[in-house]
Design brief:
Layout lengths: L6 H20 L2 E5 L5 E3 L3 E8 L8 E8 L2 E11 L3 E5 L7 E9 L5 E3 L3 E4 L4 E6 L5 E3 L4 E9 L5 E7 L6 E10 L3 E5 L7 E9 L5 E3 L3 E4 L4 E6 L5 E3 L3 E9 L7 E8 L5 E10 L4 E5 L7 E9 L5 E3 L3 E4 L23
Parallel strand pairs: 2-9, 11-18, 20-27
Antiparallel strand pairs: 1-3, 3-6, 4-5, 4-7, 7-8, 7-9, 10-12, 12-15, 13-14, 13-16, 16-17, 16-18, 19-21, 21-24, 22-23, 22-25, 25-26, 25-27
């Protein structure tokens, strides 16, 4: 008796036999890392490791996926060479929660799943970047750009404090409830004592904070600078002109100055303009004597104790005649009256 075999049924059996043989020969994938119950944070490297039970050459490449209980979340990497390990940098845009890794052969049906593990957002952090270590700033003059870096979710506002280097002794409150945007400009007041300090930036809820490096707040160095006459000025005998000077840290300067006239060609002393005049006045009205010979000169200002001095630019003293009287233009000097004390 002749038995007829259905061709479609035979082909189906053959396919199932071949696939079964391949699956059996390939074995399965055992995912050993991440470990079940482990916890990982954003922006960290997660080592994914696996083992093939048999016949590793059958599965030369694998695809790696991230799943949660609802299904596939992310295709981590396709066609990874089957070296049984892969390092994955966990992205910060991933929703915190419970996940598992699935590894599947690229050209076979073999696969394996890890146990469930947790991905979470790291603890928030603030990093103060400015002022920097040993930075020198002058009170009453400098503006400090306080800068900080913020990582991950935190309060939208911060308080900023100035501490002694021990980080316990509060010197002053710089600002309260400042938007947590990473920067704040602070005009250093002249009332801050000279010394070393650190700055603390802390969220208003008190949960996240950081201190800067130790930096220096200094008194303004004493300064005495002659501003007028400037280089190239022309002044005339018999007329009155303003000699002007600029000071900083006036309290540290001698209370009196002297003004002297010198020839520019040989730097020889010509005459005293004044021997004793208040430093704080910052200008002196000088009527040029007709006995001073025409020529090029400069003026030297000096504190009476001799510690500070400065020279003006080279200017010309000329005679006044009826011819040039109409051409004389007296330059008005604007004296810097800014107070630094």
């Amino acid at each position: 008796m002749e038995v007829k075999i259905n061709k479609k049924f035979f082909v189906s059996l053959l396919v199932l036999f071949v696939l079964g043989s391949i699956l059996y020969s390939a074995g399965r994938i055992n995912v050993i890392s991440p470990a079940s119950g482990s916890s990982w944070e954003w922006e960290t490297e997660l080592p994914i490791k696996w083992q093939m039970t048999v016949r590793k050459p059958i599965c030369s490449y694998v695809n790696i996926y991230l799943y949660n209980k609802s299904g596939m979340v992310l295709e981590i990497k396709k066609q990874v060479y089957n070296s049984e390990n892969y390092k994955w940098l966990i992205p910060s845009n991933l929703e915190p929660g419970t996940y598992y890794i699935k590894i599947k052969g690229t050209y076979t049906a073999v696969f394996g799943n890890s146990g469930y593990f947790t991905i979470k957002e790291p603890a928030p952090a603030i990093g103060v970047q400015s002022p920097f270590k040993d930075q020198k700033l002058y009170k009453g003059v400098d503006v400090l750009d306080i800068a900080w870096m913020r990582l991950f979710s935190m309060d939208r506002y911060v308080n900023i404090f100035l501490f002694k280097p021990d980080k316990k002794t509060l010197q002053t409150v710089i600002a309260r409830r400042v938007p947590n945007r990473g920067n704040y400009r602070w005009n250093i007041p002249s009332t801050i004592p000279e010394g070393q300090y650190v700055i603390q930036v802390i969220t208003t809820d008190g949960r996240v904070s950081d201190f800067s490096e130790v930096f220096n707040i200094l008194d303004i160095p004493p300064t005495l600078k002659l501003e007028s006459p400037e280089n190239g000025f022309k002044w005339y005998q018999g007329l009155t002109y303003d000699i002007g000077w600029f000071t900083m840290s006036l309290s540290k300067l001698d209370p009196y100055i002297e003004l002297a006239l010198y020839r520019a060609d040989n730097k020889a002393f010509q005459t005293f303009i004044t021997r004793r005049y208040p430093t704080s006045r910052k200008d002196y009205k000088w009527k040029i004597s007709t006995t001073i010979p025409p020529g090029k000169y400069f003026i030297r200002i000096r504190t009476k104790d001799g510690k500070f001095s400065d020279d003006s630019g080279v200017f010309t003293i000329a005679k006044v005649s009826l011819f040039n009287m109409k051409k004389v233009k007296i330059k008005k000097t604007i004296i810097n009256k800014t107070k630094f004390d």
